[in-house]
Design a protein that fits this description.
proline biosynthesis; pyrroline-5-carboxylate reductase activity; about 10% strand; 2 domains; 8-stranded mixed beta sheet; alpha/beta; Rossmann fold; ProC C-terminal domain-like fold; amino-acid biosynthesis; elongated; NAD(P)-bd_dom_sf
Length: about 325
């Protein structure tokens, strides 16, 4: 199987590329995928122009809206070519899609019929109610699921045989075009299906293919990670306020510092530890602050948070599978 390598397009502020994964990681991903056998041919009609796809959103929540806006912004689709299913009471989502010149419906079958690519963006507990509707027309279009905790095996079991499925884990910064997304392909998803998925989600940040076993740790790291960083930003700002800064400027500087540090890691390709050492002068204020962070267990706290969140993801996935 040929795996795509190289730089990915990112919408990160002032960041036009992301760092290619270590080739050993890519080889591991490839080996894991090949272990499941050869991937079938693409279910996407070859005459479809991937620069202008008809997208069907099964669920029109915040992530669906973010992706729709990103696809329009990137020129991969048009609002008029999108259709989303929303609850009649979800007037906010209906209005948002209307502003994008997209239509909404209150049932899923019209969406399934409409899309070249279908994006399942409902809550996990709703998934079992949606999937049987695919059997009405024995539809085998590419289904991209962003439903947390729902495995590829569960999706494939409930869908018409040989339906191509890809499981995606995005994160909330996709709302501002700065997402960190990974995806895992099902056994019937082809290289073409994977390329389409990567192209779609690269419109709202960076996107990488991983084996499905990575999804729970990625959820804990990238999915939950923004919450950890918001706490870091808040704490840094509080420190600035304690030392006399006004709160507005403290928040702005703390947030920009986090953005800048992340950009430095991606742009320079240097190890974060080296970048930390580069700004830690002997007997200076930075190394003094770093010492306090080490003394109070910052690293251990974050590592433990990712570990605990991963275990919780596994619990949720297990509960979802049982239901």
């Amino acid at each position: 199987m040929k795996m795509s390598v190289g730089l990915r397009t990112s919408s990160f502020a002032k960041l036009n590329r992301c760092v290619p994964w270590n080739l050993n990681v890519r080889k591991y991903v490839s080996d894991q995928l090949l272990a499941d056998g050869e991937v079938k041919k693409s279910r996407i009609p070859l005459n479809i122009d991937t620069n202008m796809l008809k997208i069907g959103f099964l669920g029109g929540g915040k992530m669906a809206q973010a992706l729709a806006k990103g696809l329009i912004r990137a020129g991969l689709s048009k609002g008029e070519m999108m259709l989303a299913s929303c609850l009649p009471t979800d007037t906010g989502s209906i209005e948002t899609f209307k502003e994008m010149k997209s239509n909404t419906v209150f049932t899923n079958v019209p969406v399934i019929d409409h899309g070249d690519v279908l994006i399942l963006s409902v809550k996990p507990q709703v998934v079992p109610k949606v999937l049987p509707e695919f059997r009405i027309h024995d539809n085998k279009k590419l289904l991209i699921s962003i439903a947390m905790g729902v495995s590829l095996a569960s999706l494939e079991k409930a869908l018409p045989k040989e339906t191509p499925v890809i499981r995606v884990m995005p994160n909330t910064p996709a709302l501002v075009g700065c997402g960190a997304t990974v995806f895992a392909r099902g056994k019937y998803a082809s290289d073409k299906d994977a390329e389409i998925t990567e192209k779609l989600f690269s419109a709202v940040g960076i996107c990488e293919e991983v084996p499905e076993t990575f999804i729970d740790p990625v959820t804990a790291l990238a999915g939950s990670g923004p919450a950890y960083i918001y706490m870091v930003i808040e704490a840094m700002a509080d420190g600035g306020v304690k030392m006399g800064l006004t709160r507005p400027i403290a928040y702005k500087l703390a947030a920009q510092t986090v953005l800048g540090a992340g950009t430095m890691v991606l742009e320079t390709k240097l190890h974060p530890g080296q970048l930390k050492d580069d700004v830690s002068s002997p007997a200076g204020s930075t190394i003094t602050g770093v010492h306090q962070l080490e003394k109070h267990g910052l690293r251990s706290a974050i590592i433990t948070a990712v570990e605990a969140a991963t275990l919780r993801c596994k619990e949720v996935s297990s509960q979802t599978e049982k239901n």
